[in-house]
């Protein structure tokens, strides 16, 4: 028996179609601003694809590119300007930021109502209908729920405990009444813990970490990991955390890398931007 491959593109398109439908009911196109610091090539690729998708959908997308040497105060001033701009509904600061900048301080400076990445403490603490939920975990949850609508009592294991993926993922699964175990680099016996998981989400960035014998038969496996592995002939491949050829033999469903979680992250960013625009418009009228 081989697992169902969860098609991230297909699910992302369904979400994007819904978002496009919601745009028809808005009086003006929502504005998304992405702030990019430095010249990390991967971050530039991610930001370009976010802005491209925003424009394709009919949103107004703009990128603020700042040099690696930007000071924290200069970055805070850019964010303050975007917070005050009436035509900007969503602000995303692309992570990671350079080491000399305090990421938490920057996240705290974004207006929570425009925080479409869901990383401001107010949003991070809520995870409810009224808050903005981080895009990647939100996308993962949508993929999980496309396979099993009621997570009550399921054992969910999240490998990785970052603020941007692991922690909000665990919180969302808990909200869905799953029993959640979170593991991280210092966890002992990760493999044993994973074997009990009905739902396994891996967000680490170590290709091939999750082996076939870590998987409970018929489990749903969501692979968030995205590592660039150099090809001998030049260029690179994107690899997930999951040893796909092994896991696909045991799991009930698994996301591929690429074309799994990635497209859902961008689609959720669009959905969050429209959600933020609608909430702001409702407050103004
Ligand atoms: P991070 O480096 O901030 O966190 C990694 C986590 O993995 C940490 O909690 C760490 O303790 C844990 N970890 C490290 N080694 C481990 C091990 N051997 N066993 C168990 N846990 C271990 O990374 P992040 O920002 O959370 O991202 C995780 C991965 O997800 C990365 O590959 C990133 O590129 C990818 N990602 C993908 C998307 C997407 O849209 N597809 C979005 C965000 C992040």
What does this structure look like?
There is one protein chain. The chain is of the alpha/beta class and 285 residues long. It folds into two domains: 26-123, Rossmann fold, CATH 3.40.50.10860; 135-263, Rossmann fold (3-Layer(aba) Sandwich), CATH 3.40.50. It is built from ten helices and eleven strands. It has helices at residues 8-23, 41-57, 72-84, 103-109, 121-126, 135-147, 166-175, 190-194, 244-247, 261-284; strands spanning 4-5, 31-37, 60-66, 90-93, 155-159, 179-183, 199-202, 220-223, 227-230, 236-239, 253-254. The strands form three sheets. The protein has a six-stranded parallel β-sheet. Strands 3-2-4 form a three-stranded parallel β-sheet, sandwiched between helices. Strands 9-10 form a two-stranded antiparallel sheet. A hairpin with a 5-residue loop joins strand 9 (227-230) and strand 10. The longest helix is centred in the C-terminal third of the chain and has 24 residues, at 261-284. The protein is globular. The termini are far apart. The model has no long low-confidence stretch (mean pLDDT 95). The protein binds nicotinamide-adenine-dinucleotide.
Keyword list:
single chain; 285 residues; alpha/beta; Rossmann fold; six-stranded parallel β-sheet; 11 strands; 40% helix; binds nicotinamide-adenine-dinucleotide
Q: In summary, what is this structure?
A:
The protein has 285 residues and is an alpha/beta fold. Helices cover 40% and strands 17% of the residues.
Query: Which secondary-structure class do the elements indicate?
Result: alpha/beta
> How confident is the prediction overall: mean pLDDT?
95
Low-confidence stretches: none
Number of domains: 2
Per DSSP, what share of the residues sits in E-state strands of 2 or more residues? 15-25%
What helical percentage do the residues reach? 40-55%
The rounded distance between the terminal residues' Cα atoms is 55 Å
Compounds present? Answer: nicotinamide-adenine-dinucleotide
Q: How would you characterize the largest beta sheet?
A: 6 strands, parallel
Task: Tell me the name of the CATH homologous superfamily of the largest domain.
Answer: NAD(P)-binding Rossmann-like Domain
